[in-house]
Write the C-alpha cells for this entry.
Amino acid sequence: MTTQVIVLNGGSSSGKSGIARCLQAVLPDPWLTFGCDTFVDALPLALRTASEGSGGIEVAPDGEVTVGPGFRALEAAWIEGIATMARRGARVIVDEVFLGGPASQERWREALGDLGVLWVGVRCDGAVAAGRETARGDRVAGMAASQADAVHRGVLYDLEVDTTHAESLECARAIAARAV
Amino acid sequence: MTTQVIVLNGGSSSGKSGIARCLQAVLPDPWLTFGCDTFVDALPLALRTASEGSGGIEVAPDGEVTVGPGFRALEAAWIEGIATMARRGARVIVDEVFLGGPASQERWREALGDLGVLWVGVRCDGAVAAGRETARGDRVAGMAASQADAVHRGVLYDLEVDTTHAESLECARAIAARAV
Amino acid sequence: MTTQVIVLNGGSSSGKSGIARCLQAVLPDPWLTFGCDTFVDALPLALRTASEGSGGIEVAPDGEVTVGPGFRALEAAWIEGIATMARRGARVIVDEVFLGGPASQERWREALGDLGVLWVGVRCDGAVAAGRETARGDRVAGMAASQADAVHRGVLYDLEVDTTHAESLECARAIAARAV
Amino acid sequence: MTTQVIVLNGGSSSGKSGIARCLQAVLPDPWLTFGCDTFVDALPLALRTASEGSGGIEVAPDGEVTVGPGFRALEAAWIEGIATMARRGARVIVDEVFLGGPASQERWREALGDLGVLWVGVRCDGAVAAGRETARGDRVAGMAASQADAVHRGVLYDLEVDTTHAESLECARAIAARAV
C-alpha cells in the first residue's frame, strides 16, 4: 500500500522535527508536516498554559506533561482533520509525542484506519535527549528524560530509528526508503 | 445556525491574527485558530521559498504574492482537513489572505458548505497596514499595501471590521457578538 | 547635541519595539536597536525563569515582574556595553521597561552620561495595552496593566508619545523629528 | 588568567549556539551569551536583507555570505560594546562566524586585548552540517557547506571541538574544563 502518512513518535528533544524537515527534502513528492506543536499553537492561551484543573496542558515541576479533557476533545477533531488531508491527496508527516503510549497510537490508528501509514519510532537515549534539551536553552528541564522511554512503551512500529548516534538526515533516508 | 467556523480575511498586517487570539479569549468555548501561516509552515522549504516556475510561493519585488499549482493542490487538502475538524466538533477560526479574491472564498465555501460559517472581512487602510508592516521589522515591504484592497474585491461577508482605528479586542468583541 | 542614543521606556505591550523598528526605517542613518528582551535572551535559563530566591526574574501570578541581584549585576555590565557601542559611533535605540522607575533611569543616565540621549516615554492606556497583550496570544496576562503607569512614575522625558490612538510609525516620526 | 570571554567560531549549523546554551548550564557562574544573530537582529531591515551594493548582508545563490562597509562599521562598535561588558564583570560567550577568517579574529582580538579570552574552534564536517541545515528547515541551503572549513582557515585556537560525532553538552564540558 502506498504510504500516505508517516507518523513519527518520540519524546521531547528526540529529533522528530528535524527528521520531518529532512523527509520533506529527500522524499520525491511534496509532503506536509504537522506536529503536536502545530496543534498546541492553535489552542487558546488558557488551554496552552493551564493551571491545575483547567482541562488543558499541565507540566509538572519534573517536566512530566499531562493533558486534560478540554485538550483531548479538540485533539480528536485535529486528528480527524489530518486524516482528511491525507485522504484528499496530501501526503502528511505527523510529528507526535504519544504521552499515553498505546492509547495515543490507538487514537491515530482509528482516524487513519484506511490510509497507508508508516509508523516510526524515534528513539534517543534519555541522557542524550536531556543534553539536547539543555542545548535548546528554552525548554523545561526534565521533559526529555521523562518522555524518552515512556512514549514508546507498548507502541508498535514499522520501523525504528535512533538519533543517539545517527543524524536526522540519515534517519530520514532510512524512513524514506520504506515509504513506498 | 450555530457558528462553527469564523473565517477572517484580510491583507498582510491588517491585524487578523491579533483578532483571532482575542476571539479565543472572549468566546465562551475553546476555539482553535489556524492561519495561512500554519499551512505555509507545513510546506517543504522548496515550496515555501520557491523560485520562478517551482509551483510554490512567489513574492515579486513589489511584495505581490502569487502561488503555483503545487501549492494549490496541497492547500485544497488542507482546507478539507480544517472543514473536518469543524465537523468533528472543534470550533475553528481561520485567518486567511484571499489572494484570489472571490475564487479563494469559493474554495473555502465549497469545503465548509454544510457548516455554520461567519465570514468576516478584516479591513485596514493600506497606508496604516504598511506602517504596521514596517513596525514588525521582518516583512517584505509592499505586501501590506499590495493586499489591502485587493483581497476584499468581490468577497462577500457577514460582517466587516476595520482595524485602522479599532483595537483587535474591540473587533473581536464585535465578531463574537455575531458568532452565536 | 547630536542624538546618539534614543531610550524608549514603556510598559509591556505599549508598542516600544514597533516604534524602534519604525525609527530604524525613518531615521536617515542606520541605527541599532536593543531591547530588554535582547538582554534577557542572553541570560542563562536559570536566571530567565527563576523560581523565588534565585536572583533572576520573577513573575508574580498578577503579572508583576521583579528581578534579583544576579540579574542586576549582569544588567549593569550590559548597560555599560551599550554605552560603549554609542561612544564608538553606533547610534543606538534602547527599548526598555523601567521596572524601578527613576532608579532604572538613573542606571542608564550614569552609563550614558556624556552621550547625546533622547529620553522618550512610550505611554499606552492600561486597558488598551492589556488588549494588545491578549492579541499577542503568548503573554502572561496582567503584565501590561501592571506596568502601564508604574514604569513612568518619576521618570523624566524629553518627549512622550502615546500609542493608545497613534500608530507606531506616527510616533516614530515625532521622535525622529527630535533626534537631531 | 581568568577566562572572561569565550569566543566560539564555527560555520552555520556547526552547533555553536547549542554549545553556548550548554556552557551557560555547566559553568558555575552566570554567563551571558551573544551571537552574530543578536547583532544582525539589531540591524535595520535595510542592512539585514540588503540587495547588492547596499552595504549590508548579501547572500549569494550558493549560500556564500558577504557583508558591506555599513555592516562593518556597526559591527566594530558592537564588538567594543561586548568587550566593555566583560570588563565590567559580565562573563560573556560569543558565538561567531569568522567569515573573514584571521581578519575577523583580529577584529575581536584587538577589542578584547586585555581580557582573558578562550578561543574555541567549533568544527563540523561540511556534509554533516549541511544535513543539520536541512533539518532546521528554514535556512538557505549551502551556507553550512560553504562555511564549514572557510571560517577556520588561518584562525588560531586554544581549543577545538568537533560536533560531527560529539554532542553539544560534551563539547561544552570540554570547553568549561579549560575556562578557568
Strands of chain D lie at 5-9, 31-35, 57-59, 65-67, 91-96, 117-123, 159-162. Chain D has a mean pLDDT of 93.
